Amino acid sequence: MDDTPRKPSKIELGGLTHSAAGIIALVLGGLMYTLPWAVHAFSALMLISAVSAIMISWRMDAWVPGHFLSMAPIVGVVAGYMGVPGAFTFAYICLVLAFTHFLWRGIQGMKQAS
Questions:
Q1: Which residue in 39, 66, 84, 112 has the most C-beta neighbors within 10 A?
Q2: 114/103 Cα distance (integer angstroms)
Q3: Apex CA 112: angle with CA 8 and CA 54, to 5°?
Q4: Cβ distance 80 to 43 under 8 Å?
Q5: Nearest to 96 by CA among 79, 73, 76
Q6: For residue 69, what is the enclosing H or E element?
Q7: CB-hemisphere CA count at 13 Å for 53?
């Protein structure tokens, strides 16, 4: 057995899960208006994204107001399953806003780094 120490992974699994679920949910959210199964797939990905966001925030001790705001899509999903009209649309709009915010913060971070 190899006893050499391993380098820590450069990719954080929770962040990768959260990002992948969010990006795929963006696509499925747009499709949920034409494909009935996409609503359930979108909802499942929103749940995965919310759970991974909570895990990341807890592990990194990074509870900032934006993290709580990012839970708004899951509120829309729950309301949608409870029969509230327009709730899935609310969830999708919140996801689009969160993704736009994520991109904006990334651009700001890149500008500050250079």
A1: 39
A2: 17
A3: 50
A4: yes
A5: 73
A6: helix 65-69
A7: 23
3 state SS for the chain: CCCCCCCCCCCCHHHHHHHHHHHHHHHHHHHCCCCHHHHHHHHHHHHHHHHHHHHHHHHHCCCCHHHHHCCHHHHHHHHHHCCCCCHHHHHHHHHHHHHHHHHHHHHHHHHHHC
pLDDT tens digits, one per residue of 4-55: 555 555 667 767 777 788 888 899 999 999 999 999 999 999 888 888 778 7
**Which band of pLDDT confidence, cut at 50, 70 and 90, is reported for residue 68?**
low
Which tokens belong to 60? 């990194």
